[in-house]
Amino acid sequence: MITANHVIKEADPDNIVARVGNAAVKLRIVSQDQASDLAALLPSQAIPYTPLVLRATSPHKGEVVTLTGFPIPDVIGESSAATVQGPVIDDASTVGGIADFKIAAPATHGDSGAPVLDGENSVVGVVIYAAGDKQSAYAVEGFNVLKLLGEVRP
Predict the structure, then answer these.
(1) pTM for the whole structure
(2) Which of 11, 57, 79, 114 makes a 20 to 30 Å CA pair with 18?
(3) Would residue 104 count as lying in a domain?
(4) Are 130 and 85 part of one and the same domain?
(5) Residue 113: which domain range?
(6) Which pLDDT score, from 0 to 100, does residue 96 have?
(7) 10-residue stretch averages of pLDDT, the chain, 154 residues long
(8) Contacts of 16 (CB under 8 A, 6+ apart)
């Protein structure tokens, strides 16, 4: 599993748990990259869902993408997943910093670590933070996920 590193950075490594349906699955940190703000975690048991496919190419400006995050209930008043969609409005050449691209889609605290999917449900990135206006999100592209996974040895 991949998430934003800042989500688990200060967590007790013995108590990281993912919600999978109605079950809680313990996770073990296997790789962290502060530069890209990504972390890879290994579940303690098999998860009965088909894994998402990582697209080999980066998203382009204007491409409509989707993210499903878990906004913090105190922020928007809900505790279930929230799916939003919007176009990529800036790419790596204009965003700078940690993020590789910006999405014109409402995002908030709790969406960090969410997969960013293209129109064919392939992963093109991972949300790392919401803009202060809560109307856009910043993400790192799949290339950084591939680099992180290259370091993972279960």
Answers:
(1) 0.85
(2) 57
(3) yes
(4) yes
(5) 53-145
(6) 61
(7) 91 87 88 92 88 89 89 54 86 68 86 92 92 85 85 59
(8) 8, 26, 27, 28, 29, 41
